[in-house]
Design goal:
It contains no helices and nine strands. It is mainly beta. A hairpin with a 2-residue loop joins β6 and β7. It is globular.
Length: 112
């Protein structure tokens, strides 16, 4: 059995706490949140307090850039109204984040 195997992620995540503004498709309201980690293929957001569902399309704005994402998962913290959101990027060709992100696959050690 191989010691390492590729996970579900298509690219390595980079820890980054960046302020963002979210707009949910079909809704004019915007919400403040922040990134927890980013990749070229997706993002994990924290501090979100609005209403969103898995499968919703959202637009994330960072500084003067924006890109479309789809909500993949939502987690709520016990005793808090804040949610964490995992979203996949629908426009990976756009460079939304200010840093160059690695392109290699995320590999984790398989527990035996």
């Amino acid at each position: 059995m191989p010691r390492f195997r590729t996970g579900k992620r298509r690219s390595k995540r980079t820890k980054a706490v960046l302020p963002v503004r979210l707009c949910i498709a079909g809704n004019k309201d915007s919400h403040l949140a922040h990134t927890l980690d980013v990749s070229n293929d997706g993002v994990r957001l924290g501090g979100f307090r609005g209403e969103v569902n898995v499968g919703d399309k959202i637009e994330i704005h960072h500084r003067h850039k924006q890109a479309q994402f789809r909500v993949v998962w939502i987690a709520t913290r016990e005793g808090s109204l804040e949610k964490q959101i995992g979203a996949e990027c629908l426009e990976p060709q756009k460079q939304l984040w200010d840093t160059t992100l690695p392109q290699q696959s995320d590999i984790y050690e398989e527990k035996e």
